[in-house]
Amino acid sequence: EPEEYWRRLRALAVDAVLISATIRQLKGAREAAAEIRRRSPESVIVLGGPGPSSVIDLNSLDRYQVDVMAKNECEEILPVLLDRLRRGADYQDVPNLLIRHRGTPMMTPCSPFRPDVTQLPWPDRALFDEKAYLDRWQRSAGMTSVHIMGSRGCPFSCGFCDLTVTGRRVRYREAEDIVAEMMFLEERYAP
Question: Angle, nearest 10°, between helix axes 26-39 and 2-12?
Answer without folding.
Answer: 50
